[in-house]
Amino acid sequence: MHIQSQHFRSIWQQANAVYIIDQTRLPFDFVTVELTSLAQICHAIRHMQVRGAPLIGAAAAYGVALGIQQDASDEHLQAVVKQLIATRPTAVNLAWAAQRMQQTLMPLAVAQRAAAAWLAAQAIADEDVAQNLAIGQHGKALIAEKATVDANQAVNILTHCNAGWLATVDGGTALAPIYAAHDAGLKVHVWVDETRPRNQGASLTAWELAQHGVPHTVIADNAGGHLMQHGQVDLVIVGADRVTSQGDVCNKIGTYLKALAAFDQQIPFYAAVPTPTIDWQIARGAEIEIEMRDADEVAYMQGQTATGDIQTVRVIPRESPALNPAFDVTPARLVTGVITEHGVFAPDQLHALKTHSLGD
């Protein structure tokens, strides 16, 4: 990602510290934060300073490295991994990365583990970037097919939540094909769902699309179906926090409704994910633990006043309770395809990816 002509990843290591872009401060302030302890990186994951399935996987890997610098014993390594996995339950990448770190480090002598952990975490981060670039190329082909209908008209793509480079180490998942198409000279326009309650679309997706110069329009969450009915959406591309072995897609709350509308209007609906997001241990979305977050995320909203101040205001009556499930599940029957680093697969073809995934 390039921000004011300077390249950034969403997470990176320098010496014995980890640095992140604090996503709770966007889009009004661009702030990087230094993390030097396991407690700090757990806080960053839990409070969504870093978010997005691939990124919190990389954060967990770096968290293992931070967590064992002073004590790399078997017992402490296992405790660190357990603590990280408990931070957020739904996205499979987090547990995948933490467990991969454990499997990499356990065969080593205790004295070798601290240094090896940094290298292993870096490898996971680098793999994520490579996977996302490949996703971009495979997804670009889908956009190019739509562009051949009328080269003078932009391909209108609807996305939900944020699955761009802010949700990954770099490159993005759902937005990777859009960036690749835009950079190749294809005309694209993105409908950006605001994505209540945390507004990751309005605050994060819109911000990074603007940074990259991609034409886009922010819409209310409930406007997507209307746009589809009126022929203003050519395809839907979302990310995912977990995809089951049979192709059910677990993503930010509200995704299911977009998939239903797309299905009704015969509009292609794709999920773009790296293979670590596919959970081969789960067949059906009903088996996924859905994270329930603080009701205050629904009750309050953050914004910028006319004078530039950042304020948080309550938007529901003080007497009213709120419910805040963070994710929903789109059944495979509504999914046209899953865009991965190995290509685009229909839900019932995902089994062909299993060898690749288990070998990563």
TrEMBL record:
<dbReference type="InterPro" id="IPR011559">
    <property type="entry name" value="Initiation_fac_2B_a/b/d"/>
</dbReference>
<protein>
    <recommendedName>
        <fullName>Methylthioribose-1-phosphate isomerase</fullName>
        <ecNumber>5.3.1.23</ecNumber>
    </recommendedName>
</protein>
<dbReference type="GO" id="GO:0046523">
    <property type="term" value="F:S-methyl-5-thioribose-1-phosphate isomerase activity"/>
</dbReference>
<feature type="binding site">
    <location>
        <position position="200"/>
    </location>
    <ligand>
        <name>substrate</name>
    </ligand>
</feature>
<keyword id="KW-0486">Methionine biosynthesis</keyword>
<dbReference type="InterPro" id="IPR042529">
    <property type="entry name" value="IF_2B-like_C"/>
</dbReference>
<feature type="active site" description="Proton donor">
    <location>
        <position position="241"/>
    </location>
</feature>
<feature type="site" description="Transition state stabilizer">
    <location>
        <position position="161"/>
    </location>
</feature>
<feature type="binding site">
    <location>
        <begin position="251"/>
        <end position="252"/>
    </location>
    <ligand>
        <name>substrate</name>
    </ligand>
</feature>
<dbReference type="InterPro" id="IPR000649">
    <property type="entry name" value="IF-2B-related"/>
</dbReference>
<keyword id="KW-0028">Amino-acid biosynthesis</keyword>
<feature type="binding site">
    <location>
        <begin position="51"/>
        <end position="53"/>
    </location>
    <ligand>
        <name>substrate</name>
    </ligand>
</feature>
<dbReference type="Pfam" id="PF01008">
    <property type="entry name" value="IF-2B"/>
</dbReference>
<feature type="binding site">
    <location>
        <position position="88"/>
    </location>
    <ligand>
        <name>substrate</name>
    </ligand>
</feature>
<dbReference type="InterPro" id="IPR027363">
    <property type="entry name" value="M1Pi_N"/>
</dbReference>
<dbReference type="InterPro" id="IPR037171">
    <property type="entry name" value="NagB/RpiA_transferase-like"/>
</dbReference>
<dbReference type="InterPro" id="IPR005251">
    <property type="entry name" value="IF-M1Pi"/>
</dbReference>
<comment type="similarity">
    <text>Belongs to the EIF-2B alpha/beta/delta subunits family. MtnA subfamily.</text>
</comment>
<comment type="function">
    <text>Catalyzes the interconversion of methylthioribose-1-phosphate (MTR-1-P) into methylthioribulose-1-phosphate (MTRu-1-P).</text>
</comment>
<keyword id="KW-0413">Isomerase</keyword>
<comment type="pathway">
    <text>Amino-acid biosynthesis; L-methionine biosynthesis via salvage pathway; L-methionine from S-methyl-5-thio-alpha-D-ribose 1-phosphate: step 1/6.</text>
</comment>
